[in-house]
Amino acid sequence: MKVQFLATFAAISLLSVTAVAPTIFFGTNAAVAGCAGKTNPCAAKPNPCAGKKTSNSVGGPLAKQLQGKPVVVDIYASWCPACKNIAPTVSKIKQQYGNKITFVTLDVSDKSSSAKAEATAKKLGLSKFFAANKTQTGSLTIVDPATGNILGQERNNAELTAYSTVLDSAISKK
């Protein structure tokens, strides 16, 4: 009796697993008997994490000491691979544009430097921007200091033209 019960249980378990396994392993119910032609109802839903947009502004005009020149804000961390990747480009931007731009580096390498960066951001009128972007290491953001509008923002992009096009345009408007 026990053997017959176990054999029946094993057969039912095997049938259940073969009916459910395609759903578990392939994420669709189309392979399950009786569900042919049906689609996954979640497949058409948008990814809630995709396409998150950053603000087009840093929160208003920047501090007086930044007025007059486009501001390039570098969110930097010493341990960040993206920061190391764009370092030669950052150096070229500083060399090419010199005193035509204001360069602000907000170092978030550790707690101490993050606290200093937060204080600097507050002093320069970048508090809102810093709060929203402090985890975006390896990013360069070009800001119009008079309006606080973000003119361009790139993350881990070592292509100089991505920045020079925006900077040249911003400088020519001044």
From TrEMBL:
> What are the UniProt keywords, alphabetically?
Signal
Q: Does the keyword Signal apply?
A: yes
- What name has this protein been given in UniProt? Thioredoxin
Domain of life of the native organism? Bacteria
A Pfam family name for this chain? Thioredoxin
Q: Where is the signal peptide?
A: 1-21
Q: Name one GO molecular function term.
A: oxidoreductase activity, acting on a sulfur group of donors, disulfide as acceptor
